[in-house]
Design goal:
Elements: H1 2-17, H2 20-33, E1 39-46, E2 53-63, H3 67-76, E3 82-88, E4 91-99, E5 103-112, E6 120-129
Antiparallel strand pairs: 1-2, 2-6, 3-4, 4-5, 5-6
Length: 133
């Protein structure tokens, strides 16, 4: 009985590791949505026949001073999915793709690497719901 309980706890802990990115980055987005110096938009795409959600796109524009927290979250969660970073001129784009059974999440952070004072950073979360198998 102890072995079954220990196995159940281990399985639960391992399955929770995949949702860490979702929790950490989503929590930051939720936190900054309430801050007055940021701009947030959310768009929901639904199937017109069933009304079920197909995709959700959340975008947060924030001041450059806030980029460090998001960069740390992306770096800390790099092992939870496919992680890419690309630099194009002064613009750095980090992307994290987390595939799960019920949905696929694409997290993107875009910012100016020169830390220009009037620039804003952008983080986007795209959640694509997978149809039930």
């Amino acid at each position: 009985m102890k072995h079954i309980f220990l196995l159940l706890i281990t399985f639960t802990a391992l399955s929770c590791n995949n949702i860490t990115a979702q929790n950490t980055i989503d929590r930051l987005v939720d936190q900054y949505c309430a801050v007055g110096n940021s701009k947030y938009t959310s768009v929901v795409q639904r199937n017109p026949e069933t009304g079920k959600v197909i995709r959700v796109v959340k975008t947060l524009y924030l001041p450059y001073q806030s980029v460090a927290k998001f960069k740390n979250a992306f770096q800390n969660e790099a092992n939870t999915g496919d992680n890419y970073t690309e630099t194009n001129g002064n613009t750095v784009t980090s992307t994290l793709i987390v595939n799960k059974q019920q949905n696929t999440r694409v997290y993107t952070l875009r910012y100016n690497k020169n830390r220009e004072p009037n620039t804003r950073a952008q983080t986007t979360i795209i959640i694509k719901y997978n149809p039930k198998q």
